[in-house]
Design a protein that fits this description.
Helix content: 25-40%
Strand content: 5-15%
CATH class of the largest domain: Alpha Beta
Distance between the termini: 10 Å
Shape: globular
Structural class: alpha/beta
CATH topology of the largest domain: Aspartate Aminotransferase, domain 2
Radius of gyration: 22 Å
Number of helices: 13
Bound molecules: pyridoxal-5'-phosphate
CATH architecture of the largest domain: 3-Layer(aba) Sandwich
Length: 399
């Protein structure tokens, strides 16, 4: 049965008068006060709030160490450095991710190798990883896509068998668990991002968590020009002013202003995730019987922290493609998005010789996905608006 309500794209009334973005931060008065307190203190950067934030993150994810960075991409660069990725090394990752997951390999002169995804979870396929391992492979960068952990047991096993480092891109997965472990305690190094659309924010910001002391020390030095003052590491000691730059690092430090915001946000992380889960339930209940939609699949042993809610279009049941559905949703004032354009489709990657057709599952999925708004600062009424807009648009375009 067709819904007779006229779509906004055809000149009808939109579901909402105001635009609802797909993701957004939630800053409260306590967050603001925490930042103001730092502005009035002695340390705006490299002060005590950074280590406080690092300790709290490490504790939250059950890891020994946490090293903050200016952003998640810088943190991934640090992890590739610590893993000794260098020229001619190959690193296997997924194409269904933000470009940063692969760019960090290029920063070190390495070569990204794209494995295909599992068509159910949309995460990197361990079978595909196995087929791509060569003598040059040094690391694997799985991404916990949408907040659902990748198949970490399989990936860690493959890594052990082949002497590879696992750098987990958990930008979507702060607070997720895999079997009985917390994401952040499983891989050799795990990255979280604090960009405003992620689970908690520091404006820009990122962190690597690890249980490995050697990686920890390299990361600390890397994010501060390659400089150390640690007397046990100096090659000589000319006096108490003395420091050494022992390799080429960067200034990738987070400020105390950012760390204060992060600490304050961490207090609400559990609640943030609960709200995301409540909204996911509402979406699942509303969409599971719409024939044009496949709702996200969740594996029982992985507890997602739900960064993104992605619907997959069953195109054979629809009279139009993804683009028309996308534009119709936007006209209803619902901020939809697409996560992600496969990395190997990007012009820069094309110039390096990457070609379409190498990851058929990821490439097919890309044509069929739409991300709906999901974040804790949304109200239940916002969620209901999204549901009504989806029902309106899909009832019009369902064959
Ligand atoms: C956000 C994100 C990053 C990069 O994080 P920034 O903090 O924005 O640099 C990397 N990978 C994935 C999958 C992301 O979503």
């Amino acid at each position: 049965m067709k819904n007779t309500e006229k779509l906004a794209i055809h000149g009808g009334e939109p579901i909402r008068d105001t635009y609802l973005p797909y993701g957004k931060q939630w800053i409260d008065e306590k967050d603001i006060q925490a930042v103001v307190d730092i502005l009035k203190s002695d340390y705006l950067t490299t002060g005590p709030t950074i280590s406080q934030f690092e300790r709290k993150i490490a504790k939250f994810v059950d890891a020994k160490y946490a090293v903050t960075f200016a952003n998640g991409t810088a943190a991934l660069h640090g992890a590739c450095f610590a893993a000794c990725i260098q020229e001619n090394d190959e690193v296997i990752t997924t194409p269904l991710t933000f470009v940063a997951s692969a760019n960090c390999i290029l920063y070190q002169g390495g070569k990204p190798v794209f494995a295909d995804i599992d068509p159910n979870t949309y995460n990197i396929s361990p079978q595909s990883v196995r087929t791509l391992i060569t003598e040059k492979t040094k690391a694997i960068i799985p991404v916990d896509f949408t907040g659902q952990p990748a198949d970490l047991d399989e990936i860690v096993t493959i890594a052990k068998e082949n002497n590879l480092v696992v750098i987990e891109d958990a930008a979507h997965a702060l607070g997720a668990t895999y079997k009985s472990s917390r994401v952040g305690s499983i891989s050799d190094m795990t990255m979280f991002s604090f960009h405003p659309v992620k689970h908690i924010t520091t404006g820009e910001g990122g962190v690597i968590t690890t249980n490995n002391e050697h990686y920890y020390e390299k990361l600390i030095q890397f994010k501060s020009h390659g400089i150390t003052r640690n007397s046990s590491k100096l090659t000589e000691n000319q006096g108490s002013w003395y420091y050494e730059m022992q390799f080429l690092g960067y200034n990738y430090r987070m400020t105390d202003i950012q760390a204060a915001l992060g600490l304050s946000q961490l207090n609400r992380l559990k609640r943030f995730i609960e709200v995301r889960k409540e909204y996911v339930e509402m979406y699942n209940n509303a969409f599971q019987h719409i024939t044009g939609i496949t709702i996200p699949f969740q594996s029982g042993e992985r507890n997602s922290s739900w960064h993104l809610y992605i619907i997959r279009l069953n195109l054979e049941r629809l009279s139009v493609g993804r683009k028309d559905i996308f534009e119709a949703m936007m006209k209803e004032n619902i901020g939809v998005n697409v996560h992600y354009i496969p990395v190997h489709f990007q012009p820069y990657y094309k110039t390096m010789g990457y070609r379409r057709g190498t990851c058929p599952n990821a490439e097919k999925l890309y044509e069929e996905i739409i991300t709906l708004p999901l974040y804790p600062a949304m109200t239940v009424y916002d969620v209901k608006d999204v549901i009504r807009a989806v029902q309106k648009v899909f009832s019009f375009y369902t064959k």
